Amino acid sequence: MAWERLKGRRRTLALATLAVVAVAAAAIVVAILSGRQDTPSVSGAAKDVVTTVRQFESALAGRDWAGICNRLYTSHAREAAGGSKCPSALAQSAGGLRDPRVKILSVVVRGQAATVTVAASVNGKAPVTDAIQLQREDGQYRIASAGTG
What we know:
Blueprint: H1 2-33, H2 45-61, H3 65-72, H4 75-80, H5 86-94, E1 101-110, E2 113-121, E3 128-137, E4 140-148
Antiparallel strand pairs: 1-2, 2-3, 3-4
Helix pairs in contact: 1-2, 1-5, 2-3, 3-5
């Protein structure tokens, strides 16, 4: 019985983490694609990081949950989001998000890892500083995690 409660708590935590990733990444994409002044210009590896975010936006707009889970998340993030159930978990967690807004504060690339720091808000709430972690896997930067900073 205790094992089932622990397993349920881990699943809830994974879904909450997934929701934060979805919110922050969607907010970044909105800022990038709208050409906002607060989006930093990027090149090289940082441009690859931004490309991953743009691909996420396209998949999100197309409600391609499987594509997000299988192509844009790291294998670890996909497992944390439910493994084979990741697409349905993402659809559930991202379904209620409205009006994402973001100010990109920085893009930092260190070898195989990258961090995008944003001030993001959804559903008309006050902005929250968030750090999105990306990791290079299978030749591209993939979304590894996000956590409120």
